[in-house]
Design brief:
Elements lengths: L1 H19 L13 H16 L5 H14 L3 E2 L9 E2 L10 H17 L5 H35 L5 E5 L5 E3 L8 E3 L3 E4 L1 H7 L5 E3 L7 H8 L3 H29 L5 H12 L9 H15 L3
Parallel strand pairs: 1-2
Antiparallel strand pairs: 3-6, 3-7, 4-5
Helix pairs in contact: 1-2, 1-4, 2-4, 3-4, 5-8, 8-10, 9-10
Length: about 290
Amino acid sequence: MKTLAIAMLCHSINAAYCQSLGDDSQPTWDDAPDWQKNSAVAGVEMHIANPDATPEQSHESWYAQKEAEGWVYGEVKDADKKEHPCFLPYDELPPEQKAKDYLFRATVHLMKDLPDVGEYLALADEVKNLREKIQTNALNAQTPVTLSATSLGSSGIAIQYIGRKDQFIDLLYGSNLTFTKGQVRHVPSNIAGNLLKHPEFQRYEQQVFDSSEQDAQQTDDTSTILDEAKKQQDKDNEKETIELDEIDTVERISDKKSLIDYAKNKYDQELDGRSSVKTLQNQVVDLIKRFGVV
């Protein structure tokens, strides 16, 4: 499939080059006879199998094939008579024909390492599945620690807020815990370690509580707040993963029209078709980051 696509592209470039010279005799790929299509495919296969082959060597290979098929030189290409104006030694070819040979070789080597549509879709799915697996493994690795920390309740590390503010909310470490002045909370060791780095917190030494203090401990909402923060973090991680997967897919699209259609259909944005593929990719990625995946 890929070899045929490259051959089709080479044929189209060759026809366009001939038209630039005033030669309109080259048919479209769909209208080209089988011998012409097979010749293009054979040329592609030769360059892929022999990446160091020069245009001269390519012509020699083509010449040998035509000779074996009974072709001879003729001023006008005639498939019925098997006459071809390029059935000459390479040194005797006109500059225009040599230019076409160089274009053919360059096109093959440019396209041979690009994935075809099937390979691209398979690769995109593989990357997506791998990221989902990594995220799942990371969450599974964190779950035992989180559960043991939040289910311990009052058996966590007791820390006390002694700062000047009437109310403090931990946004720096993502726990979303709220402390009033003098409040004690039992928190997991990792959160305690982070908050105790700041002078507004101190480790609270256990004391004998009276009944009112015991009631306060029993109604401690630390575990609930931490669980909600964990759910929000999971939601944010999932959103980020979806965006990264979409960005990865966009960065593999090398067709301008597809990028322009993507921006129009999903974000109702018009992109300039004169821009390079890289610029269009960056513009689409910016849309994804600004508005999310739609």
